[in-house]
């Protein structure tokens, strides 16, 4: 069963909450904090803020206005698509270095509301304009696309909070939909893993804001299963490590020192290579 065929993940109602928290956060930052380095490699807090603005603007232009602007050419693989997106991101953040923090905040306020209004018009069960490629899908439903957009907004705000030492977005209401969406990448991460039919893998994000996700090998594919009686491999990870690991903010090597594994170590460690972001 593909993620889009599972029960929808409700995230749309959380967009205004995240946007409001973001604006309050950005308005509180000092000049030094705007220029702070983040776990997103070469990006500063200001670069990430610009990237969030780009997400709103591109979403409105492409999804609402059917205006694609720069179209990818010669995309023959997943890595080609990632390279194209990285190039888009780089050209945007370079151009917006000339924008002041106040201008970025103002634009985020207006475009965030417009994008939320647009997303409300989409039928959750119609095909989305873009698939959620990191989940292994070639076609996705709108609810999954919207949930993916939620993870983008959550992740990048969390990166800013992490960089400037502000409280994390670690509430059940906000974190669980984020990590639940990320975990839709679990079957895809195991797609090339050899195991006998009936093998069960469980990933547990600990504490009250986390949860458990399990997949089973059936008919040569991996699919989600309700909480099993027994798992062949279990991997337990803390929420703070989970958001970093699955968004390229931590290496799988570093994660090995932090997670708890029960059962088949080799099978469990495949989960350390989940990537629920594109670029």
UniProtKB/TrEMBL annotation:
One of its GO terms (molecular function) is metal ion binding. Residues 22-160 form the Mycothiol-dependent maleylpyruvate isomerase metal-binding domain. The keyword Isomerase applies. This is Mycothiol maleylpyruvate isomerase N-terminal domain-containing protein. Transmembrane segments: none annotated. It comes from Flavobacterium chilense. It comes from the Bacteria. Pfam families: MDMPI_N (PF11716). InterPro entries: DinB/YfiT-like, MDMPI_metal-binding. The keyword Ribonucleoprotein does not apply. Keywords: Isomerase, Pyruvate.
